[in-house]
Amino acid sequence: VIDNVCFAVCDPGSEVLIPAPYYPAFDNDLRVKSSVVPVPVHHGSASGLRKAFHSSAGGPGPGKREALESVLPSNEDLDRAFANCSNPRILLLTNPHNPLGVVLPSDEVKRCIKWALQKGLHVISDEIYANSVHGGDDADGGGEIGQGFRSAIAMMPELSRLLGSDLIEERLHTIFGFSKDLCASGLRVGCLHSKNTRLLTAIDNIGYFCGVSGHTGYLMAQTLQDASFVKKFLAKNQANLRKSYQTLTKHLREAEIDYLPADAGMFCWIDMQRYLKDKTFAGEMELWTGLARDAKVLFTPGRDCHAREPGFFRICFAWMPEEALKLAVDRVKHYIDKL
Ligand SMILES: Cc1ncc(COP(=O)(O)O)c(C=O)c1O
């Protein structure tokens, strides 16, 4: 879906601004067919988000909510990135966030949408984890579907009052997919919410080349019409994610590995900076290679997510058995203790 929207909206070589760190596959998704250039945009300061980490030295980070205001780049950070582009077309937001595993504060999301629309950009809000808010570390979450999370679609009326409905309807697009919340990545079904009729017509046309089969369409229709099944499935999925998250973070705390408290998705972002021999991305790769080769634990290196600094890794915990999560952390601990 992202590829099709980029293909329809951009020219080859157009830039898409993406708050970093971001989902590593965006690079390929954007470049391979549409020849669009992803531009990572960092928050100007690393220290804000760092306050939110659960640290082995200082316990839970104070003021997680305030610290999350340092996830998305400031308007000044966005201005700087924008000024370096030759043909910027889109701001791509991911909420709930991958790789950080957090629900973004809605005021911050709104600020970024407003900034982008005033610059004449389109905005894509990637909400593929919308129903995977597990609330593992956040009293707002608690496993109720969608709690603590606000879709860009729900923000449309207030954004329309601020900026005018024409602009919002033409430029704000929300995407969703069934790969995560319904654990159905093999079916390859995603969807687009947009009120831009020209975009929808274009997507209707190019969508022919990547349409879902009749069988899959039928299966999805049957599944989604069964509202009570969907509700139960999502609640069970959230409960399983929460349980895995809580098990994983219990072991991380015991191993004195610092992590960003998460409340959505299947990720935990950890800080291994102090285990780098060399505080560079080459040093990060050395640690990553050792963990994969010797500890047999595969993390996503922060470098692949365009992290601002070396030494951060994404753990994907999904529906792992509790013993596997413990074993993974034990192996990591054993490896880092020998460094
Ligand atoms: C933020 C985000 N967007 C999009 C995707 C693509 O999902 P899929 O290609 O499985 O539908 C993923 C998958 O990990 C993701 O994390």
Can you put this structure into words, describing what you see?
It is a single chain. With 339 residues, the protein is of the alpha/beta class. It has two domains: 2-225, Aspartate Aminotransferase, domain 2 (3-Layer(aba) Sandwich), CATH 3.40.640; 229-337, Alpha-Beta Complex (Aspartate Aminotransferase, domain 1). Helices cover 42% and strands 14% of the residues. A six-stranded mixed sheet has the order 2-1-3-4-5-6, sandwiched between helices. Strands 7-8-10-9 form a four-stranded antiparallel sheet. α6 links the parallel β3 and β4 (122-126). It starts with a helix and ends with a helix. Bound molecules: pyridoxal-5'-phosphate (PLP). Pyridoxal-5'-phosphate binds next to loops.
Strand element count: 10
Q: Tally the helices: what do you get?
A: 13
CATH topology of the largest domain: Aspartate Aminotransferase, domain 2
Low-pLDDT regions: 139-145
Biggest sheet architecture: 6 strands, mixed
Strand ordering within the main sheet:
2-1-3-4-5-6
Question: What ions, cofactors and ligands are bound?
Answer: pyridoxal-5'-phosphate
CATH class type of the largest domain: Alpha Beta
- In terms of structural class, how would the helical and strand content be classed? alpha/beta
**Order of helix and strand elements from N to C terminus:** HEHEHHHEHEHHEEHHHEEHEEH
Pfam family, one: Aminotran_1_2
Protein name: Aminotransferase class I/classII large domain-containing protein
Organism: Chloropicon laureae
GO molecular function: pyridoxal phosphate binding; transaminase activity
